[in-house]
Specification:
Elements lengths: L11 H6 L23 E5 L5 H13 L6 E3 L9 H13 L3 E5 L25 H17 L4 E4 L2 H13 L7 E4 L8 H10 L3 E3 L6 H8 L6 E6 L13 H8 L2 E5 L15 H24 L29
Parallel strand pairs: 1-2, 1-8, 2-3, 3-4, 4-5, 5-6, 6-7, 7-8
Helix pairs in contact: 2-9, 4-5, 6-7, 7-8
């Protein structure tokens, strides 16, 4: 457990010179939690849709000196060939970066029309047994090819994969990441997802700072948050809040999304130029965030590169039927 960090106050010295009062802060609202390595934050570049985009991200991250802990993909394992997955696994392993791929069929891309309505219907969840089975098949295929982090967008998929992990059908060090599109928005929901098997959880980027503190009072499961969110997640840009997001939400993955850019899911060659340009720009956005943290004296506490496991988390009991 780490000591509560000091609130960061951008512009504090300038305001003091002109006698402008600052809002009161409460040190008790800081998260008491950290990653097992002692760090309070890690970085993630999302929407890296294949080996070519990954190469751009890796090259650009070296050029801009951006440390990267995790790379994630959004189109899905089923949209990648075995060779493409193997290439991505190898490239990430060379840099000790975690690779996270999205599991299988989900609501926006199957036959369900409800997701196209104003209410959004069932959202990204897996419709019926066949879609659930597709996600399981994706998971088994991905881990066989060396992937150890899987993105999920359905509570049933999460619980099923967790049970398979507990049964030894998936490697014990496989981790599950909950998608931003089903991310929990209150402490009770966050705790339920943790107990269903989640190892890190995207929360919507429009949650207030107080909401992060509320979550941290019931769960230490790592939190993923878009510092800049894609337009379909609201397009929020919260760079100036990055230090406070870490202070309230640790252990936290800072995700560098991109607003005002076209969607690229599901990715194909017809979107190549957009995918490569946006991959490059996400790295630049990440560098801007880390530069801002440094200016605020808040760039300490980053996990060592290569760190990926979440530490001990709370789970619902897993039972397996007796075999005859």
């Amino acid at each position: 457990m780490t000591a509560p960090s000091t609130p960061r106050r951008p512009g504090a010295e300038a305001f003091a010179r002109i006698g402008h009062a600052l809002p009161d802060t409460d040190p008790s609202d800081a998260s008491p939690h950290a990653f097992p390595d002692g760090g309070t934050w890690r970085t993630e570049i999302p929407s890296v849709e294949g080996p070519e985009a990954l190469g751009v991200v890796l090259e650009e991250s070296v050029r801009r000196d951006l440390p990267v802990h995790r790379i994630s993909q959004g189109s899905g394992i089923w949209m990648l060939s075995d060779a493409e997955i193997t290439d991505m696994v190898g490239a990430c392993a060379e840099r000790s970066i975690e690779l996270c791929l999205f599991t299988g069929p989900r609501g926006t891309w199957d036959i369900g029309a409800a997701t196209r309505t104003d209410s959004g219907g069932a959202g990204l969840r897996a419709r019926g047994h066949d879609a659930l089975a597709g996600c399981v098949e994706d998971a088994l295929r991905a881990v066989e090819l060396g992937v150890r982090c899987l993105l999920v967008a359905d509570e049933g998929v999460l619980w099923t994969l967790h049970r398979l992990r507990a049964a030894g059908a998936l490697p014990a060090d496989t981790t599950f990441k909950v998608s931003a599109l089903i991310g929990p928005v209150n402490p009770a929901a966050y705790a339920v997802h943790e107990r269903l098997g989640a190892d890190s959880l995207n929360i919507p980027s429009d949650l207030a700072l107080a909401h992060l503190t509320e979550i941290r009072r019931v769960s230490r499961a790592p939190m993923d948050l878009y510092v800049e969110a894609p337009d379909d997640l609201g397009g929020y840009v919260r760079m100036y809040e990055a230090a406070e997001l870490i202070r309230r939400g640790a252990p936290l993955y800072l995700k560098f999304g991109l607003s005002r850019s076209p969607g690229i899911y599901p990715y194909g060659a017809q979107l190549r130029d957009i995918a490569l340009a946006t991959a490059r720009e996400r790295v630049r956005r990440g560098r801007l965030v880390l530069d801002l943290l440094a200016r605020h004296g808040a760039d300490g506490g980053m996990s060592p590169l290569g760190s990926r496991l979440p530490g001990e988390l709370h789970r619902f009991p897993v039972t397996h039927p007796e075999k005859d």
